[in-house]
């Protein structure tokens, strides 16, 4: 070890003040032609229209999302995915961007959601959003293990992995998610949205 | 930092293609040596104050350039391991900076396995010392009983926190050794850089300057010596003289627009292990019909990636796994001797990086370690893991195999450059070594008192090879300074030069090699 320089630390608060960042900003959603910043959860509460996903896509995402990581629907998983799919690829924050899937990612999501919805109809004879908890769990288990007969979409095990990652992101990867797990977030630079995206 | 979105000048002493660890280091030294240097970065500009503490935002640091087609049983994970933008992959690296060992340079001679480097450890030792002084490494050289000769670290070790203390019990109880992990992260104020806060956000990039990424280290140095950098400017071709003996410059497409030609006395390729051979292959001319530097037929070959041996456990005690550095707190290289696990069919070296800072989400986050869980079971696991999770990662040597290679695809990117196709499958000895490490790691965690122990898949970390150095043009692409055989003013830097991977993280060696190349070029200018 060399000559020991003075050991002092820069406080997080001081750093944030120095850099002038750490403020709050939100995702930009379009409402009646106006741009408004809000969290995905707020966008869901405000019934902001979707840019990429269809109504059936949203029902499937929220159903599967809550089955994967309970609470992810209320956290705005559908608006989050919709926003990210609508963003330029260089701004995309979905985990899929480094999992070897060619861009654009929308066909992957729509293909998987369509296949999951079809599987629900085939196996349980009802729309995916009407599955009860046991049925939904069974469906997710089949998707996760590649055991959906007649699956017509991206490899189901991989689709499970990707959508589960998204559900985990909005449920546990946010400042609220950290707080729910009693894990200090301790940001150097605060994420520019209150949901910690 | 000087930033030029457009160029009025077209001629430079040196053009450096890429602004990551290797590119920034050689650019800084050439500029410091009085050369007029241009750094050309294909991706976007970045600043430290854009490095948001979030595993989601961290993904914007990953690769976003031309797609890379991956093939083979063990893909190298290019989109995860690479980066696209100023600072390159070193912007999201964990700053674990151990040295290669002497035997890593002499694999063929000593063991009749793999390849020899054209240099030995002693040729690189002084450059390791310079690199660690300039970057600032925290560690305890005496405690690293396996460490090759070299100057002591300039800063004391990183703090040992709860997770590290708990896992260290397992090493102690099984008769193994640990030492503080050598990290290019500040444990004290260093050259004006503040001390690390140990909040575990290294993966998202370090905005405070504690971690030695290019935005903190060599890019400011390069700019202070009047180097110029342009971003969002992909290089589409390397230009070669008619006789094929000199590089004359590069063709670029700023912002994807019209082609411009930039000329230089020296062209340095610092675009990482996949894009460098891609560019050399795609720049074939009459004088280099198989690609520049491919007289040996070895251009693109010997791609390597370390297997990650991922060990996870749940402990009764609170581990505070969210604190510390993403790279970890402790290291053990007891399993570095190549023949340690030969009886299992394994061969090679590995080290353990112990007690990594882990967040709940992302590919290396807590939730992904049990990707089989969902619903209430996942939530119950997350609640338990939030207080008692521990992890360590083995960095497992990948022996060089010629068929693991970069070739050009029939598909092209938006600028008309053929895409890279990367084939990679670990050989049996390397995969056996990974399995052997997993078995050892589980025993260590059990001995440490973990009430649950599990392991992860054979992930890929770091990418090396593809433009290997060697003694002549029959066995390699470059000489030991990275100069392409037969085209001495065309220089490759970065992990692509490695003929062997060793069992340690590559960035320290990348920096040392780049400093050595810069030193050589300046002493022999004009090259």
Please render the helix and strand layout as text:
The complex is a heterodimer of chains A (197) and B (527).
Chain A: H1 12-19, E1 27-31, E2 34-38, H2 40-45, H3 55-68, H4 77-86, H5 106-124, H6 133-145, H7 156-172, H8 175-180
Antiparallel strand pairs in A: 1-2
Chain B: E1 11-17, H1 21-32, E2 37-40, E3 68-71, H2 78-81, H3 107-111, H4 121-135, H5 162-173, E4 179-180, H6 218-224, E5 228-230, E6 235-240, E7 247-252, E8 260-269, H7 272-282, E9 304-314, E10 330-332, E11 350-354, H8 366-369, H9 375-388, E12 389-396, E13 405-412, E14 418-423, H10 428-448, E15 452-455, E16 459-464, E17 483-484, E18 487-492, H11 507-523
Parallel strand pairs in B: 1-2, 1-8, 2-5, 3-14, 8-18
Antiparallel strand pairs in B: 4-10, 6-7, 7-8, 9-12, 9-15, 9-16, 10-11, 11-12, 13-14, 17-18
Helix pairs in contact in B: 1-6, 1-11, 4-11, 5-10
Molecular structure report:
- The complex is a heterodimer of chains A (197) and B (527).
- Helix content of chain A is 47%, strand content 5%.
- Chain A has 197 residues and is mainly α.
- Chain A has a domain at 52-180.
- In chain A, strands 1-2 form a two-stranded antiparallel ribbon.
- Chain A is globular, with a radius of gyration of 20 Å.
- Chain B is of the alpha/beta class.
- Chain B has a single domain, classed as 3-Layer(bba) Sandwich (FAD/NAD(P)-binding domain).
- In chain B, the strands form three sheets. In chain B, strands 1, 2, 5, 6, 7, 8, 17 and 18 form an eight-stranded mixed sheet that branches. In chain B, strands 4, 9, 10, 11, 12, 15 and 16 form a seven-stranded antiparallel sheet that branches.
- At the A-B interface, α1, α6 and α7 of A face α9 of B.
